[in-house]
Write a structure and sequence with these properties.
The protein has 238 residues and is of the alpha/beta class. The chain contains 7 helices and 9 strands. The longest helix is centred in the N-terminal third of the chain and has 11 residues.
Length: 238
Amino acid sequence: MEKGAVDIASASRNIKREEIEQTKKNTGKEPKEFIVGYDALAVFVHKDNPLGKISLEKLSGIFIEGGALTRWSQLGVRIPGVKDDRIVLVSRQSSSGTYSFFRERVLHKKDFRLGSLDMNGSKEVVELVSNTKTAIGYSGMGYATEDVKMLCVSIHESDTAIPPTMENALKKKYPLARSLLMYTLGEPAGDGKDFIDWILSKAGQTIVKDNGYVPLAVADLSPPSAELPADSSGKSVR
């Protein structure tokens, strides 16, 4: 986008001011932003992990450099069949918009703890967590499978933990809700405009919903087809 090499750029974070300025400098055009859907950035653990909820404070203590939380026992969690309860961190590569969103929202732009397993894609994050009983990772809720559990999330320990559902993402009740975006160089035209218009149409928004994300207007607020997230008491939400 900054170099004018693409017509449409997809993003899971908002464009930065310096990126806008660089785009204008290189192309003479200002990026135009389109919100095409919403997502809940889910926190995943293995299906056998009894944990049902977590706060952003504790999530930061797990992922941030110098954080005090390195073992599941520090969270009062005992995972069946596990002797070494050291927490395995599963993250995204630093060039990912998902990585940037998590770093900004959870770590307040501070560094991640060294030693995390950084995956190239969201699907790979979930797959690794599903195969590692002591792992914790983050990814879009649309990537959930029956082999992982999505945790309810609160901002502070004293707050009610909110499950990552379509309705909570749309209403921004879920602390890690985010917009899904597309950018064009100025007002889109031709095929680019047709594509944006189609994504914003009923047909396009149906595909957004069918893939586990949140369309701009939701008629059926059922959660994505995956294991139902637990509520703040650890029970499944129905």
